[in-house]
Design a protein that fits this description.
Blueprint: H1 2-15, H2 19-35, H3 44-61, H4 66-101, E1 109-113, E2 116-123, H5 129-150, H6 164-171, H7 186-191, E3 198-205, E4 216-223, H8 231-238, E5 243-249, H9 256-267, E6 271-277, H10 285-290, H11 292-303, H12 308-311, E7 314-319, E8 324-326, H13 329-338, H14 341-346, H15 353-362, E9 367-370, E10 380-381, E11 392-401, E12 405-414, E13 416-418, E14 422-426, E15 445-446, E16 449-454, E17 457-460, E18 465-467, E19 471-475, E20 486-489, E21 508-513, H16 529-539, E22 547-550, E23 557-562, H17 565-577, E24 582-584, E25 588-589, E26 592-593, E27 600-612, H18 616-624, E28 630-636, E29 641-649, H19 656-663, E30 669-679, E31 692-695, E32 699-700, H20 703-709, E33 713-715, E34 722-723, E35 727-732, E36 738-740, H21 770-776, E37 781-785, E38 790-794, H22 799-818
Parallel strand pairs: 1-10, 2-4, 2-5, 5-6, 6-7, 31-36
Antiparallel strand pairs: 1-9, 3-4, 7-8, 11-12, 11-20, 12-19, 13-18, 14-15, 14-20, 16-17, 16-19, 21-23, 21-24, 21-25, 22-23, 24-37, 26-27, 27-29, 27-30, 28-29, 31-35, 32-34, 33-35, 35-38, 37-38
Helix pairs in contact: 1-2, 1-4, 2-3, 3-4, 17-21
Length: 819
């Protein structure tokens, strides 16, 4: 029924695009839930009159003439009726699917666990997600402090387990010192993105006028990476939560990076809450008044296949940096126009507690597996009810501690676990194997420690007991533990391993090998190919979307299959900071064969580029030309920005980032995500025919030599850098490679010349990151990575060998052309 309600409200909101109209539409959606029976479409006639009355009142409240209402009434009701027909057919399909699913019942039923909420935070880059989490940590800590100061023994009335008291002591510590707590890694701080998912526990006491009704909750807040390259991280962490908080910049609206994580969350049936952040800025005023951001959100949810229940998300307005939030758009507009957010926050009108209260009220308690007495109704369970239930826990993160050994973080789905319990391992169902997941793998182990994450600190639970619904870290787990595996009690095992989300296939591959260049071993400590391979294999324990294989053609190299340039670049950057030296070959896109037609298929991606309008033509030419992209959608805004959506082969995006950043003077913002496999697009070129400047001498680059070479192209090195024959020191302004001497020094003699004493000037060199070089390098080049340097060089260092190989390739091409 919500389908035709949405169609009706959307038609009204588009005709009269103002915030008051949208508020009436939201009220209508809420009212019609009570008026209409969603399981009986015959009640539509009874709702027909109520809907007409609603439209009439809506028009009159906006000072719209009755003639205008009569003119538009028929078209609106036609949309209403056509939507009813589509709803009826959809309902039939749903009923059929439900009847099929009832044939095989699991050995457990789904129940709820009281006193806890598990929620994920989803946001686009720079929309305020990290700042929002910092504020929630402060507010939750203050709620516990205020509660303990006003009443003693409030923990006795809590719905939570006994681990709350020990956690509160940590949380009360120094909340004012929290700053970008969730993005705590060095790479995350440098790049301003979330790379690894993290979980932090908030202990929150709800406010109430009656102290006896005050309740305590544990809220596990999960931070999610937004880039599609970290798809495995997103899929596994979303399986541990029951709802999401979508943070959107009120002045920008939903952006492309939000789309992937939100689509995965909606497909899993998670309950959403929307926070329009940065509502106190003047640039947000226009979009809040017109309701443009809210309409864009409704369109996005509908396009991503949100259910009728998910479309009824709660919307909040606020400022994470200002520390206030409200559910009243008029209050947010007043703050954006006149300021005063801090004053209202002090008055308690717009405390950030509103978001925590919304999470408690709207996000459902975690669903748990109940193996006891069956019940047709969902019943909320207390912690004591899980004592006799079989314990099961799915691993979402696996690590190693020098003192604790192998550790595992995940959500407990059933039963209870305590320190000293014996646990066994159940392997996850492989995509390619039909193995029995009911048998334990390896010997049982004893739980040696149990921890909760408070901020970025791992705090031991006291007493060490956790029950279904909790997200905890266990130590003493089996050494063979991997992400997606299930831990269960040795004495009271569950029947099968917990189902985990399937993994998205990799899209590209690279070869990793030991550094065999002239400077090998000068800067790193781990230089052998065996150590490089061992490090890559250990990465697969936790990075489930990464696959490591031995290279069949070269025993010294290792094949790494990943999701994109960014994922490979982050891995290489982590390894170089650990002291590794290695070389990386150019990436190769993975193709598959269609089982029906036998044709080669390659991955395609959806690319969204936001750029200044004056550079829109440049972006279009670069993507739709040699890179084989297709423009799908294009739109302009009133700020001089153009948004373009393309569908392009993944090969066409290699090296596109730095190229378009230079062409648009850094104004282009690009995001992409995997779309599907399509027919192979043929030969793709980057569109650049420029060659490289290759060193032919060994030594340190000099200012005298580089100054003369700067006229030949763009330099990658500066005076004093070590160079050697075969190393790429710059980009040639013309086609073809050019060998140069970057170590040539000024002649030291007594001959006087006119320009002998001239002062030399040199522009700063162009420095590229690992992921930029991955897409930039040619097929005959490799990246040499050390803890101190990132160099680009030829695979074959000998210039004579390179020339002979080039002549041989040219002969082959010429012979093919003659044929």
């Amino acid at each position: 029924m919500r389908i035709y309600q949405r169609a009706l409200s959307r038609a009204i909101a588009q005709q009269h695009n103002n915030r008051k109209c949208i508020a009436h539409v939201h009220n209508f959606l809420a009212m019609s839930n009570n008026m209409v029976d969603v399981n009986n479409t015959m009640n539509c006639n009874r709702s027909y009159t109520s809907t007409t009355s609603f439209i009439s009142s809506l028009y009159s409240s906006n000072n719209i003439s009755s003639s205008s209402f009569a003119t538009n009434q028929n078209s609106l009701l036609n949309n209403y009726s056509s939507s009813v027909a589509s709803f009826s057919s959809a309902a039939t399909i749903i009923d059929e699917s439900d009847s099929d699913s009832d044939e095989e019942r699991p050995t457990y039923t789904l129940q709820r666990r009281r006193g806890i909420r598990n929620v994920a935070i989803v946001a686009h880059v720079d929309h305020g997600k990290t700042t929002l989490v910092d504020e929630l940590l402060k507010v939750a800590a203050s709620s516990v402090t205020e509660s303990s100061a006003t009443a003693n023994g409030s923990a006795d009335s809590s719905e939570n387990n006994s681990t709350t008291d020990s956690d509160n002591n940590v949380q009360e510590g120094e909340p004012e010192n929290l700053d970008r707590l969730m993005d705590s890694g060095d790479l995350e701080k440098e790049r301003g993105i979330t790379i690894t998912s993290k979980v932090t526990r908030l202990n929150y006491n709800t406010t109430s006028n009656n102290e006896e009704e005050e309740q305590s909750y544990v809220i596990n807040v999960v931070d999610t990476p937004g880039h599609a390259d970290f798809a495995g991280e997103v899929d596994r962490i979303l399986s541990t939560v029951d709802g999401i908080v979508l943070v959107v910049d009120a002045g920008e609206g939903p952006k492309s990076q939000t789309k992937y994580v939100l689509s995965r969350a909606l497909s899993l049936g998670l309950v959403p809450i929307v926070v329009l952040n940065k509502a106190d800025r003047m640039e947000s005023l226009g979009r809040l008044e017109s309701g443009e951001t809210e309409l864009d959100l409704m369109d996005l949810f509908e396009a991503l296949g949100a259910t009728d229940e998910q479309m009824e998300y709660k919307t909040l307005f606020g400022s994470a940096r200002g520390g206030w939030i409200t559910n009243d758009v008029d209050v947010a507009l007043d703050v954006a126009q006149n300021g005063g957010g801090e004053e209202k926050k002090k008055e308690g009108v717009m405390s950030m507690r509103g978001l925590l209260d919304s999470i408690v009220e709207n996000i459902p308690a975690p669903s748990v597996h109940w193996y006891g007495e069956r019940s047709t109704e969902v019943v909320s369970k207390d912690t004591n009810d899980f004592v006799d239930e079989p314990f099961s826990m799915a691993a979402t993160n696996v690590g190693y501690d020098n003192y604790l050994g192998r550790t595992c973080t995940g959500r407990i789905y059933s039963g209870q676990v305590a320190g000293g319990d014996n646990i066994s391992l159940l392997r996850r169902q492989s995509d390619d194997e039909d193995e029995d997941t009911s048998k334990s793998s390896g010997p049982s182990t004893e739980v040696s420690g149990m921890f909760a994450n408070i901020g970025v600190s791992r705090v031991p639970l006291d007493p060490p007991i956790a029950v279904a619904g909790d997200i905890v870290t266990l130590s003493g787990v089996p050494e063979s533990m991997k992400v997606g595996d299930t831990l269960t009690s040795t004495d009271n095992q569950v029947a099968h391993a917990i189902d985990t989300p399937p993994l998205a296939p990799p899209t590209l591959s690279c070869l990793f090998g030991a550094n065999n260049g002239p400077l090998s071993g000068h800067e790193g400590t781990h230089i052998s190919s065996s150590k490089v391979r061992a490090r890559l294999v250990s990465e697969t324990d936790n990075n489930v979307t990464l696959t490591v294989e031995k290279c069949e053609s070269d025993a010294e190299k290792t094949v790494v299959l990943g999701r994109g340039e960014l994922q490979i670049g982050i891995l290489v950057e982590q390894m170089r900071r650990e002291g590794f030296e290695m070389i990386i070959t150019p990436p190769q896109i993975l193709t598959t064969t269609c089982p029906d037609t036998g044709e080669n298929l390659e991955p395609y991606e959806e690319v969204v580029v936001d750029v200044d309008a004056e550079y829109s033509g440049t972006v279009m030419d670069r993507l739709t030309g040699a890179r084989k992209g297709v423009l799908v959608e294009m739109s302009d805004d009133n700020k001089g920005k153009t948004s373009m959506k393309f569908e392009i082969p993944s090969r066409g995006l290699l090296g596109f980032g730095p190229e378009i950043a230079t062409a648009t003077r850094g104004t282009a913002v690009m995001h992409h995500c995997y779309l599907e496999d399509r027919e192979y697009a043929g030969t793709i070129t980057s569109g650049s025919d420029k060659g490289k400047l290759v060193s032919n001498e060994n030594g340190k680059a000099t200012l005298f030599a580089l100054e003369s070479l700067s006229a030949r192209g763009i330099l990658f090195v500066e005076p004093g850098d070590k160079v050697y024959p075969g190393m790429v020191i710059g980009e040639n302004a013309k086609s073809g490679d050019l060998e140069v001497n970057p170590v040539r020094a000024k002649s030291l003699n007594n001959m006087r010349t006119q320009n002998k004493e001239e002062k030399l000037y040199l522009a700063p060199p162009k420095r590229m990151s690992v992921e930029e070089l991955i897409g930039y390098m040619s097929d005959d080049e490799v990246i040499e990575v050390t803890p101190l340097s990132v160099r680009l060089r030829k695979l074959e260092l000998d210039s004579g060998v390179r020339e002979r190989a080039a002549r041989a390739r040219k002969k082959q091409i010429d012979s093919k052309k003659k044929k």
